[in-house]
Design a protein that fits this description.
By secondary structure, the protein is an alpha+beta fold. The chain is built from 8 helices and 11 strands.
């Protein structure tokens, strides 16, 4: 009679399976279409208010900064932003009124609001007013304008162009002058939502982020930006310097952490399962010593005996 240890010793390994699924999910997350190109983009944050700047001086500093950085060697383009896509927190929702559109009683017409279109994160603008994408005329004294995303345009103007139409934000009517491509704003898995952008100099805030697309490495690009800032104001601090790829890493942090922890636990469980399988096989062999001796005495080779034992071990492993 054959004696076996309980099959519970050879357990399934759900932790390893879960780890594999999370790693696969993480790999697919890197392939998600973000709606923009994050490669070779340098980020640097500023806050002139901390250096004693009032609003007028702050506006002038940012204007000169963007114009100066654009002329630097190794810089293709530059712009400013208050909030970047895939930033944790800081989401602002706005109740809007669409000119000529009557919502149903239960309809949610809120939109996510963000300052400035991140034109440096190409491709970005899909449709713009006839005179191009220049926003120099959208200063603080100009008529108020807004750029919306493609999802918002399809929702409220499905059969015509949204350009030239108006929407009301707070107590001001804004003319739609551009339609931006949908981007991932809150998470990699989100579905597109209505989003609107306000020109920075019509919605000024002191803390802003310089977004510069480069053709050189991060260190060289930052030194060039640092030199340009020193020309404008040697005391102006620069903080949170990183590439956009590093910034996106924050959005993947939870998935990375889950995949890492489950991989560790999965490997630990796999090791324990291996020890359990070894114990089952060792116990089985010890109970069959007499049988194996008889097999060898009647002509079975060591290879035959080894094949018999390994075959049964593999069968137990398959069941487990």
């Amino acid at each position: 009679m054959h004696h076996y240890a309980p099959l519970q010793s050879v357990t399934a390994n759900p932790e390893l399976v879960s780890a594999g699924l999370f790693i696969r999910s993480l790999r697919e997350a890197y392939k998600v279409n973000l709606g923009f190109d994050p490669d070779h983009v340098l980020l640097a944050s500023f806050d002139p208010f901390l250096s004693g700047y009032d609003e007028n001086r702050g506006r002038e500093f940012y204007r000169r900064l963007v114009e100066g950085v654009r002329t630097l060697p190794g810089i293709q383009s530059s712009t400013l932003a208050r909030r970047l896509p895939l930033t944790l927190g800081g989401i602002a929702f706005a109740n809007v009124t669409i000119d000529g559109y009557t919502p149903s009683p239960a309809e949610d017409i809120r939109s996510i609001m963000g300052p400035s279109v991140p034109t440096t994160l190409k491709p970005c603008i899909s449709r713009w007013r006839k005179d191009g994408t220049s926003t120099k005329r959208d200063h603080e004294r100009a008529p108020r304008v807004v750029v919306i995303n493609e999802t918002m345009a399809r929702r409220y103007w499905p059969k015509e162009s949204a350009l030239g139409h108006r929407l009301k934000l707070a107590d001001q009517w804004l003319e739609i002058v551009g339609v931006a491509k949908d981007v991932k704003n809150r998470s990699l898995s989100e579905s597109p939502k209505p989003f609107l952008y306000l020109p920075l100099f019509q919605d000024y805030r002191s803390n802003m982020i310089l977004v510069a697309r480069t053709t050189v490495d991060r260190g060289e690009a930052f030194r060039a930006v640092q030199t340009e800032v020193a020309v404008l104001d040697k005391r102006m601090p620069i903080f949170d310097v990183e590439t956009f790829e590093e910034h996106i890493g924050v959005a993947l942090f939870l998935q990375r952490m889950a995949a890492t922890l489950l991989t560790i636990f999965g490997l630990l469980a796999l090791s324990l399962a291996g020890l359990g399988l070894y114990g089952v096989v060792a116990y089985s062999v010890s109970q069959r010593t007499r049988e194996l001796g008889i097999r060898i005495s009647v002509g079975a080779s060591k290879g035959d005996v080894l094949k018999l034992i390994l075959g049964q071990a593999l069968m137990l492993a398959a069941v487990g």
